[in-house]
Structure formats: structure tokens, C-alpha cells
Amino acid sequence: MRVSSPVRQNRGQRSSQRSWTVIRSPNPGKQSDFTAVSCWTANGCLAVGSDLNHGIAAAWNGSSWTLSPPPAALTEPGAVSCAGRFDCWATGYGFHLVPYAAHWPYEVHFYPHQRVPDLPALSDAARSEFGEIYLDVLRRFDRLFDTPAPYISAWHQAPVRHGRDDFAVHLELFTIRRAPGKLKYLAGSESGMGAFANDVSPEAAAQRLRDLA
Hints:
Layout: E1 11-15, E2 20-24, E3 32-41, E4 44-51, E5 54-60, E6 65-68, E7 80-84, E8 87-90, E9 94-97, E10 106-112, H1 124-142, E11 151-156, E12 170-175, E13 177-179, E14 182-183, H2 188-193, H3 202-211
Antiparallel strand pairs: 1-2, 3-4, 4-5, 5-6, 7-8, 9-10, 10-12, 11-12, 13-14
């Protein structure tokens, strides 16, 4: 909500079905506006918005809001939907995330906002921004360890002639290195059963990549 004053004050309201309670939300900048919120529990919510040309986000823990890493590719997030703490979707040209149950210690997925079958089907703006995000994350991967990280870039696209409606373009990017000079070797359960185990949590991996900006 915008307030008529020289400095905008973001506020949210929570309903108990009988009345609304005003809850003050963070103000990252003088022009910040939170425009959408999604909750997966009464004590778990994520709000998104923008401050000038940057996306902003805040997380609700049941008693207060704290600033949270925003969808980096969205300059003006307009909507968000969360099915859980690690499963949120925001509108925009595109965004990237560390998946909830990553196979590899450092793994990032890229999904364009608009579902399309392949890269040529992306709009010019989306394709351009997709490339910028991709290069940015690759540079962060190179700074993860003492030497550039080897990585696998798996682009998923639809077949050319058949079944194009059944597939959506996206990218899975990961490195097989788990620490400086150490590779991630698959255990029998991982190779044989696809049951992956990780000694790096998704939250820690995401924070590490954010810190390498």
C-alpha cells in the first residue's frame, strides 16, 4: 500500500475473517512498493515488489517481515505464488533458482516466465535477458572455488516436429565439484536408484552463489 508522504511506507494487512490487522513491512528504499504476497502457512509468506529498477522481496515468519533475496531477473515482480518455503513462482521475463532437492551441491535451474517449447520461441527481450542471467551465474560458478568450476549445462527443449506442447524450454546448470579440489562422486544409491544425498543444503548453496555477485 502506498502512503501519501515524501517517503513511502509499506504496510500489509492480515485478515482473521473478522477483522484486518495492519502489519508494517520493510522499506528497502524511498520508492519501494510490495505488490504481491503468497502464503503457504499462517507463519510462512513471501512478498515481492520493486524499488526503482530492482526487484525486492520479504519473508514473513509469523511475527515479522525480513528482507529476502528477490527474483534477480525481475525488475518489477508483479505476482508471486508459493506452494512451500522452497517452491515459489514469480512473474517476469525469467528467473533462476536453486531447486529444493538438488542432485548436485551447486545446481541452478532457469525457467522463463512464459512457457514456450524452445529458445527460438522466446521473445527477443526474454531471450536477451535469459542470456544475461546465464552468463552471470556462470561467472559465479567460476568464483565458487580456487579455480573455475567445471560445469554441465543441460538445455531442455521440445522436439522439432512432434510433442512440442509436452515440453517447455528450461536449463539445468550444475558443477560436479563439491569443494576446492574435490569432485562429487556418486554413491551406489545415487547411481542405481536416483536417490541423491548432499552435504550442502539448498539454502547454503543459494546464499553462497548470491554472495559471489
